[in-house]
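[audit] Reproducing an earlier prediction to check determinism. Same input, same settings, fresh worker. If the tokens differ from the archived copy the diff job will pick it up downstream; this log only records the rerun itself.
[audit] input (236 residues):
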Amino acid sequence: MTETPDSPAAPHGHQHNHQHGHHHDHDHAKTLQPDLPEPTEEWEFLEIALRELLIEKGLLSARAIQDKIEEWDHRTPHNGAEVVARAWVDPAYKDRLLSDGNTAVAELGYPFEGLKLVVAENTPELHHMVVCTLCSCYPRQLLGIPPLWYKSRAYRARTVREPRAVLAEFGTLLPEDTEVRVLDSTADCRYLVVPMRPQGTEGMSEAELAGLVTRDSMIGTAQALTPEGGRAAGGI
């Protein structure tokens, strides 16, 4: 879409010559992160317009926005991997996690506030995979920033229609008698998948087990890794 100064998606609708009658902080994220790519999507222009308006009105500063971005950048799939590893080694914790995800992850220092966290366990009989058919709702507190494919229209549409085909494209081939259940995230609810614990991991420490838990296995598009570095075919 071609943006014009009068387009609703244009950042301001006027030239940015900064000749205002006042001074305000204009070192926006573009200045703080000069390597950011130029926006191309409509939502990107809207985000810029809203961000600059909040800064111009003094409701937020560019530094506060950047600090929040950096805070989110430090939330990685390792957080969720620690939760899964604890569930693998502690049956009582796993029971709490499956019954009340919010409270259980907070026990490990990962508060999940403002949203309901539902945790689903994969078994040889039942395999869960997560999607957000409307946008890209995702448990960022535990998994960090969602991958591009998770936000793509193809994944969002195809997962609910042909989940086994999508799984196969990720290299995840399930037995025919394994039920595949798709979990559709909403604005109020996020999902975390506990993958099956790989065989041959009985003597591993909790930290070592966390290293076998990948982002994709907690979305359900893959299995956890084996101790040898491959994808697990079954669990213990």
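[audit] rerun output stored. Observation attached for the diff report: Confidence is low (pLDDT under 50) at residues 1-35.
[audit] end
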